[in-house]
Design brief:
Length: 240
């Protein structure tokens, strides 16, 4: 109870001060669990994420390089070789929520039987990177809206391609990664039979294990069920 010694709490000088401090404390605590930004989206930060994995272990972000044998990483946003021309991440890492990582492990195993494997361009992406992309390139056909966040921010989207395991070479695809051309749309007809076949092979391999290709990027796949996972704003350094 608030009440003591017959005084109504909050009516004397110290009570008012105490209530004021409690309000400040509450504001600071809720701020550390979700950071609200100028786009009005509350992204979950480390404390909120840790609480979420305690109640639902599927929410854990898994390091794909450690979890999937033979997977290759080419994390473009950890280099200047990306559409922003800037290094966005300090570390080259690929993370995804547990069921996403498990599905991808099955895909890697399926591809291996054909001498093929996965190369990841991007996995879980901290929300602040999505804001940066939007501020560089405003077209939401190709970059996610910061008002809603990206499925990458939920740890439920992957950008990837297929490589030949013996040479390490990427299979020929209709465009390069992060092309803002209509040729990158999975619905665009491809004249080159090899690129057509490879794009179909990738999409089929991913769909078999619960992913759906993005309508304007042949390399981007959303995990079905992504709505059950919050937008996160946690740097890779914090996950190490
Ligand atoms: Zn993507």
């Amino acid at each position: 109870m608030w009440r003591c010694a017959g005084r109504v709490p909050g009516t004397d000088k110290y009570g008012i001060m105490r209530n004021f401090l409690l309000i400040i404390l509450f504001a600071v605590t809720s701020q550390s669990l979700t950071a609200q930004n100028k786009y009005g989206l509350k992204a979950t930060t480390m404390e909120g994420y840790q609480a979420s994995i305690k109640s639902n272990p599927n929410k854990e972000l898994i390091n794909l390089e450690k979890f999937i044998p033979g997977i290759v990483l080419d994390i473009r946003y950890a280099t200047t070789n990306n559409f922003t021309g800037e290094k966005i991440y300090n570390l080259a890492r690929a993370y995804a929520r547990k069921p996403v990582a498990e599905a991808l492990r099955k895909i890697q195993a399926d591809l291996k039987t054909q001498g093929l494997g996965i190369k990841i361009f991007d996995g879980y992406r901290p929300y602040k990177a999505t804001v940066k992309f939007y501020e560089v390139y405003h077209d939401t056909t190709y970059v996610a809206s910061p008002y809603r966040g990206s499925r990458h921010n939920r740890g439920c989207a992957l950008d990837l391609t297929v490589i030949n395991l013996s040479t390490g070479e990427e299979l020929k695809m209709p465009t390069g990664y992060d092309s803002f051309q209509k040729a990158a749309w999975p619905s665009t007809p491809v004249a080159d039979p090899e690129a057509r076949k490879n794009r179909a092979l990738l999409i089929k391999a991913m769909e078999k294990h619960g992913f759906k290709v993005n309508s304007s990027e042949w390399w981007h796949f959303d995990f079905i069920g992504w709505k059950n996972y919050e937008v996160l704003d946690i740097d890779y350094e914090e996950l190490e």
